[in-house]
């Protein structure tokens, strides 16, 4: 699976942004997907995931503000980011895995989100 993330940019605090991650190469519906982010000087962390079963997970830091969704017909997973904060500034990565349990082993190239105060 090849993943291509897009949609990052510079936004003001309190605004919204939607990231997209387009997948190619395999049937997407059977994969678990996730969004991670890596802030300046920080480790990459899991934000949210959407399993092939329909289950979702959200880290406390984004719960209630971010929403993961997927369109299997378009082989695309989205991250809707609302009420963004300066601390959301990071490189955002989409990821996928074919097997569970296991690591996310397919990664997009990352898209930078910068939130100004």
What's the SSE blueprint?
Layout: E1 2-6, E2 9-12, E3 17-24, E4 32-38, E5 45-50, E6 56-58, E7 66-71, E8 76-81, E9 90-97, E10 106-107, E11 111-116
Parallel strand pairs: 2-11
Antiparallel strand pairs: 1-3, 3-8, 4-5, 4-9, 5-6, 7-8, 9-10, 9-11
List keywords for this structure.
117 residues; mainly beta; 7-stranded mixed beta sheet; 4-stranded antiparallel beta sheet
Describe this structure in words.
- The protein is mostly beta strands and 117 residues long.
- Helix content is 0%, strand content 52%.
- It has strands at 2-6, 9-12, 17-24, 32-38, 45-50, 56-58, 66-71, 76-81, 90-97, 106-107, 111-116.
- Strands 2, 4, 5, 6, 9, 10 and 11 form a 7-stranded mixed sheet that branches. The protein has a 4-stranded antiparallel sheet with strand order 1-3-8-7, with no helix packed on it.
- The relative contact order is 0.32.
